[in-house]
Specification:
The structure is a homodimer of 146-residue chains. The first copy, chain A, is α+β, with helices and mostly antiparallel strands and 146 residues long. Chain A contains seven helices and five strands. In chain A, helix 2 packs across helix 3 and helix 3 crosses helix 4. The longest helix of chain A has 18 residues. Chain A binds a DNA duplex (25 and 25 nucleotides) through helix 4.
DNA sequence: CTAGGTGCAAAGCATTTGCCTCACT
DNA sequence: AGTGAGGCAAATGCTTTGCACCTAG
């Protein structure tokens, strides 16, 4: 993500936190920034690793609690893929995922057409739709080459 | 699932096992049947529970190993949702999921339109597409009522 | 000042592994 | 005899919880 884009995200983040009443702590800033700087949909462990150089005393519990809090308020989103650890994504607007079934890599996909697929009547009639996303399971070029 | 439909699935199952060279054991039959009889996308624990009356000595390890084996050969499929336990589904052909974000219920959705969405060029060009599915996150009627 | 946040350690579960036994070729 | 499968128990690993201390607002 570009520097200027990051700035916008960070300002948005601060604004949302104040709005909700979440204290802005150095740890929370660090966790949010770590997410912005990592487009691989890191899991809590990976975020923890990327923060420890700067905050050697931060604990995994804090990372878990913080991510959970952010996700609960929609500041970040949870991504679940074909493997079992939860991953997080700072992009909360509608987007889709390409998951390589071999190396488990997750790539974001922004696509106008997919954003406006026809919502089946069955869903519209009975449920309150929160969001939807399309998961593509693929073998990526690198894995295919092997 | 209707009785006659189940029969077809079971015969298919037996056929696939023989083809692959998997021994057909009472435990494996029981696990597969449990999956057929439960359209709630059960997790290993739930499958274990539904089998114990008939097979009191079966172990969780067997359930895990068996499900993993079935999934590896494409006999059943793994479903991952917005919560963290893995769930399984005997239906391996393309279908989509409605997940209630409150009660975590998962409902299968068969939909012609969704089966033929436009695959983005970005994917077609670089990757070998295995499958895709659409996840709808909703608040279901029961939860909305509360 | 004080509610909310952090960090540590322990607990809790889901899942996996190792290994021995058994059944069927 | 040898291979594949099952069952038990232990290990692993991710995630959550409880609690005492601390800090941002």
């Amino acid at each position: 993500m570009s520097q200027s884009n990051q700035q916008i995200y960070i300002e948005n983040f601060l604004h949302r936190c104040r709005e909700i009443g979440l204290n802005i702590t150095p740890q929370r800033m660090a966790i949010y920034k770590a997410l912005l700087n990592d487009d691989s949909h890191p899991n809590p462990e990976a975020i923890y690793q990327s923060i420890t150089p700067e905050y050697p005393t931060i604990s995994m519990a804090t990372v878990y609690k913080t991510l959970e809090t952010f996700a609960r308020y929609g500041i970040i989103s949870m991504v679940t893929t074909l493997h079992n650890t939860v991953r997080y994504d700072p992009i909360t607007k509608r987007h889709h995922h390409i998951v390589c079934v071999r190396c488990k890599k997750v790539i974001d996909l922004l696509d106008q057409d997919l954003d406006s697929i026809k919502i089946p009547n069955k869903i519209k009639k009975n449920n309150q739709l929160i969001n939807y996303s399309v998961h593509f399971n693929v073998i990526c070029p690198e894995c295919k080459g092997k």
